[in-house]
Amino acid sequence: MTLTKNLVSSFGEQLRSLREQKKMSLRQVATEIGIDTSLLGKIERNERQATKEQIKLVAKFFNHDVQILIEENLSDQLAYKIIESDAGINILKVAEEKIKYLKTKK
Asked: Are 69 and 55 in contact (CB under 8 A)?
């Protein structure tokens, strides 16, 4: 199973796509990975963010690279934060510089 990298979509939309490619219901996937069906539905609808542990379960179930899924989920979180704060895209450049600085402090 692969995610389409040339189309921009949310983590939830990508998760739904993986599930639909397997022709499985929400309930089936939720049962297989051990989370509540309603929670999985909320993640697919972008009403809830998946935890790192939930992402690992999804990656294992769909035999997908966990790091890619973590990056996709984190990019959603960043995008939502930027939208909520009415910050411009320039904030990403500031964050990049701050990351470089903080890495030197470790």
From this structure: yes
In a domain, 2, yes or no: no
The token pair at 10 is 């949310």
Domain that holds residue 52: 11-105
Reported as a pLDDT band with limits 50, 70 and 90, residue 53 is: very high
pLDDT in tens, 33-51: 999 999 999 999 999 999 9
For position 20, which CATH number holds? 1.10.260.40
In this prediction, residue 9 has a pLDDT band, given cuts at 50, 70 and 90, of confident
CA separation (Å) from 61 to 29, 54, 81, 89? 8, 11, 29, 35
